[in-house]
Structures are given as C-alpha cells and as structure tokens.
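#onboarding

Welcome to the new folks! Below is a worked example of what a typical request in this channel looks like: someone posts a single protein sequence, and someone else replies with the predicted structure as tokens. Don't worry about understanding the tokens yet, we'll cover that in week two.

Example request:
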Amino acid sequence: MTPIFKFSIREYRASDQHVVMSLFRDGILEHVYPAFFNAISNPDHVGIALSISMAGYVLGGSSYFQALLFGSAWAGLIYYFCHDIYEGYMMRRLSTDMANIQTNYLEKPDNGFWVAEADVNGQSKVVGMVASAQDAEDRSYGEMSHMVVAFPWRRRNLGSQLMQKALDYCKEHGYTRLVLDISSPQTAAISLYQKFGFVQTGSHSNTHANRWFSKLARINVIRMENKYLTWKYFLTRK
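Example response:
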C-alpha cells in the first residue's frame, strides 16, 4: 500500500537555505541527461556520429575499437555542451537572486518564494519550491521561476499545488499576466504549465553559453505566458 503524505506550502524561511539550494541544484542538473539524449538522437547528430565512427574505422586500419572511440568522443562532446548550459544557468542564478532569497524575494512586497513540506513520520521535510517576482521594467506582470519538486515526491499533485500558489499570489497582487522561461527538453513541465493556461509566446537559443554549444545541444529557451491571468479566470476556478 502506497503511504499517504500530507503536504503544506508555506513561505521560505532562512532555515530552509541548505535544503533549498540542494533542491535547486538537483532540479537544474537533472535536465542534462534528457537534453543529451534528445540531442544525440537527432537525425543530424546520428549522421555525424556515424560519419565520425566511419572515419575512425578507416583511420584505425579497419579498427572497430577506433570507430567506437571516435563515435564516443562525439557523444561526449554533446554531453559536455548540455552540461555546460545547465550548469552555467545554475551558477548564474546562485550568484544573483538565489544568493539572498530573503532580500530578493521576501523583503520585496511584490515577490514571493514558497516551499512545499511533506509530513514524513511526524517530521517536516522540504520537497518542493516555487518563486514569483515582479518584472523590474513592466510592473504589470510577474515572472515565475524555480519550480522544483524532488524526484521521489512527483506524481502526487504537488507541482499543481505549487503552481496554484504562484497563480493565486499573482491574482492578489493584481498582475495582468505571468510569464516563465523553460528549456525545450523539459517536456513534462511544459505539459503542466499548459494545463494551467500557459501558452508558448516565443523561443530563442540564447542560453548565455557559447552559441555553438546551444546550437549543437539543440536546447532552446521557451517563453510561456498565462493568457488567462484575469480576475474572471480565477473567480471561475474557485
């Protein structure tokens, strides 16, 4: 029998810092492997891998080992590109808004940062998080970020609860819309956002990594926006 856990969503506390940072790092780097498999299975990359392997076979004097070595080197390069993109994003956020959650979120009246707690054998454990911040230039809308649910706690509707918390917060603060950026390999998260009324409004390959890294890793940044973020929409959901 699957155990039943109780979840609660509350505002971030200073004592959550260590677990939240760990959750954030794991939540970002877990996308490296899906991005790698998505990229390496692309027909163009398959063709390149076969060509490089064939070159290794010929240069190695009909050596299957050399063919495998050359092909593996190409795959390793693609993996490095994927890892560099996600690690670079993680390090940028850890040195900016995540460096001081108290100052950048809680002390700003229009920003919010929440964690999800699970009651495990009478002990509270942080297993998810989400943040929302007012746009610095256009104060009519907010940007959602840092939506992470620890892997063992997924498929328990926790992501939906965190999403609803961010949407309700934006409603209370009078935002006309809520936007977010997400990488193209995060297909499960994209599906969740679509269920909550988010639609894709743009896409670009500027991952702040070397442009060839992004091109060869085939990772795009997708901008999504909640087109139903209005008072009428929220009133009908209650």
